[in-house]
Write a structure and sequence with these properties.
single chain; alpha/beta; 8-stranded mixed β-barrel; two-stranded antiparallel ribbon; 23% strand; globular; binds ligand C2E; binds calcium ion
């Protein structure tokens, strides 16, 4: 089994049995524990634009970690934190930071919705919905300012438990979206049964849609299916005008990507909302 890890030097391939991979994993885990303790993590915010009118009133928060000048990608450390269980502590930290930011913007009179990535382990942990309920109360913000992004696999792999937790969250009034849609074994039947508000089309489809007719058909189908089920659609990783134009034609509701904005610190993101 080969495992690809991405860092600022590019992609490194490790054999799963390889000592180098285990060493890197241990190092990351140890450094990440320290980073959490010393508050060396930060959240960046990437605005989402509504396609119908160009308005920008929501964003996704993304973890950033600079360890002694080395940028370590969440694409690398999140899977490691998931395996070690550190994701639970990390996830709590992310929730508190994001709620804190939502509260700060709310106090300034801005109604900006923040989408928070939730990993499978965190979502399926007993008491997860209660922890969201408690934060809504403690930070005293409307539930509509919070969206939770859950991956397709975390829902589909445990659909009964997932469905119960989704119901609890839905009752709180937070928004729910299915992330990386199309990359797992999506069961369309289940999609209609889950109480979610939005699906997020994975970047892998968006980036290929202009040149690959099959990817384009998938994007169009997801847009139509979601709309038929009364869900909103967002496309991630939108980088070109041509992609944007096609998504607009397909009736996609929101877009997110470098074309419009990169993930930036909260102070910069705020200048893009309108
Ligand atoms: P994701 O949730 O699918 O997030 C989208 C990723 O695409 C982000 O990478 C974002 O920076 C990147 N992106 C956005 N627009 C574009 C674009 O136009 N072009 C390209 N090439 N990339 C774009 P990032 O920030 O490196 O995060 C990678 C993954 O790490 C995320 O994928 C998510 O699964 C995970 N992650 C990040 N922050 C958190 C977090 O706070 N909690 C959890 N559980 N996972 C997180
Ligand atoms: Ca996401
Ligand atoms: Ca994705
Ligand atoms: Ca994801």
């Amino acid at each position: 089994v080969e495992i690809a890890l991405k860092n600022n030097q590019g992609v490194h391939y490790f054999n799963a049995d390889d000592g180098a991979y285990h060493q890197r994993r241990l190092t990351i885990t140890r450094r990440l524990e320290q980073a959490l303790k010393h508050n060396e993590l930060t959240l960046y915010y990437q605005p989402k634009q509504q396609l119908s009118d160009g308005r920008v009133q929501s964003c996704e928060c993304l973890l950033r970690w600079i360890d002694n000048g080395e940028f370590i990608s969440p694409g690398e450390f999140i899977p490691i934190a998931e395996r070690s269980g550190l994701i639970l502590v990390l996830g709590e930290w992310v929730l508190d930071s994001a709620f804190n930011q939502a509260r700060a913007w709310y106090e300034e009179g801005r109604k900006i919705q923040i989408a928070i990535n939730i990993s499978a382990r965190q979502f399926l942990q007993p008491g997860f919905a209660e922890s969201i309920e408690r934060r809504l109360r403690e930070y005293a913000i409307p539930a509509s300012l919070i969206e939770l992004e859950l991956t397709e696999t975390s829902i589909m792999d445990n659909h009964q438990l997932a469905s119960a937790v989704l119901m609890e969250l839905r009752a709180l009034g937070v928004s729910l979206s299915i992330d990386d849609f199309g990359t797992g074994y999506s069961s369309l039947a289940y999609l209609s049964a889950f109480p979610v508000d939005k699906v997020k089309i994975d970047r892998s489809f968006v980036s290929q849609m202009v040149d690959a007719p099959k990817q384009q058909a998938i994007v169009l189908t997801i847009c139509q299916l979601a709309h038929n089920l009364g869900l909103k659609v967002i496309a991630e990783g939108v980088e070109t005008d041509v992609q944007r134009e096609l998504l607009h034609q397909y009736g996609c509701d929101f877009l997110q990507g470098y074309l419009f904005a990169r993930p930036v610190p909260a102070s910069e993101a705020v200048t893009l909302f309108n």
